[in-house]
Inverse folding.
């Protein structure tokens, strides 16, 4: 799952949402200590979601459909592919539009700017120019995002050519989303409930 799915799964809790954003920028348990407890919980939830989705049978099957030389980067392609599916179905999961959600997340970041690392600020500045979450409904924008990730790698990679396999994978993305997302939602609900029971929040 990429940013959009992590944020949607975090619900309305600001701490969990911030953790959803920070999860890819925080390594190890020691690094958690600089954040408030609610944000730490959000980062741990992010890690739980990543671990759960990677092991889901539908995702394992989808990964096997991605041919070489793209298979090595299957995780990136799948993450963005599932965000694309969520963006196209957004009205099933939220009463607000993607554009409104985009603004809400920008406001959340603005209120908590001291917690936001430079790399995440750079990403969000890029997103501001694209209207990124809403743009995830668009195939070309998702492919542009995948290509942009590839440019950040030091070694040569084929991510700028993902358009070569995108159309053949789109039906599989839809099937994977239909099977995996409800399971992840259920797992997250249990995780949040257990957190509330443990912390009394």
């Amino acid at each position: 799952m990429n940013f959009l799915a992590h944020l949607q799964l975090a619900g309305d809790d600001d701490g969990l949402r911030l953790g959803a954003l920070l999860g890819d920028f925080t390594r190890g348990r020691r690094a958690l200590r600089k954040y408030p407890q609610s944000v730490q919980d959000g980062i741990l939830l992010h890690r739980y979601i990543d671990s759960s989705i990677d092991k889901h049978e539908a995702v394992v099957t989808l990964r096997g459909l991605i041919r070489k030389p793209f298979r090595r980067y299957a995780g990136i392609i799948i993450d963005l592919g599932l965000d694309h599916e969520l963006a196209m179905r957004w009205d099933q999961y939220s009463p607000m539009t993607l554009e409104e959600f985009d603004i809400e997340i920008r406001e959340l970041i603005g209120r908590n700017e001291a917690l936001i690392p430079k790399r995440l600020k750079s990403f969000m500045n890029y997103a501001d120019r694209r209207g990124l979450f809403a743009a995830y409904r668009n195939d070309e924008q998702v492919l542009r995002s995948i290509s942009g990730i590839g440019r950040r790698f030091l070694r040569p990679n084929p991510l700028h050519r993902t358009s070569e396999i995108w159309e053949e994978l789109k039906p599989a993305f839809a099937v994977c989303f239909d099977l995996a997302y409800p399971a992840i939602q259920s797992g997250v609900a249990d995780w949040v409930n257990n957190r509330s029971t443990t912390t009394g929040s």
Notes: Residues 163-199 form the longest helix (37 residues). The two ends are 26 Å apart (CA to CA).
